[in-house]
Write a structure and sequence with these properties.
Radius of gyration: 16 Å
Number of strands: 7
Number of domains: 1
Shape: globular
Distance between the termini: 20 Å
Strand content: 35-45%
Largest sheet: 7 strands, antiparallel
Helix content: under 10%
């Protein structure tokens, strides 16, 4: 773990809110995370840009998205990633 983490800042438990509104995904953790992402349009009308049959760590099929809103506040830091890239994909939570 020390290879990836320089200093452990701790953990806390909070409520997470997630919702979809059409193609837009919103997620919040009150006073910590405020995010909203939407797919980037593909070359076919009405279809998002996708990456398929990949070995990308998060999943084999990814919808390419962009952050419409992406703010994080915690541990004395404030980040704003609005306009940056994001991904949408189905996650397999059951593990190996």
């Amino acid at each position: 773990m020390s290879i990836l983490v320089g200093r452990f800042l701790g953990v806390w438990q909070e409520d997470v809110r997630y919702e979809t509104d059409g193609d837009v995904r919103r997620f919040t953790i009150p006073k910590i995370i405020d995010g909203e992402i939407a797919p980037i349009a593909g070359s076919k009308p009405g279809q998002p840009t996708t990456i398929e049959n990949s070995q990308y760590w998060i999943g084999p099929q990814i919808i390419v998205a962009q952050a419409l809103k992406s703010r994080f506040r915690g541990h004395g830091r404030n980040w704003d990633f609005k306009g940056r890239s994001a991904e949408i994909c189905a996650l397999d939570w059951k593990g190996p």
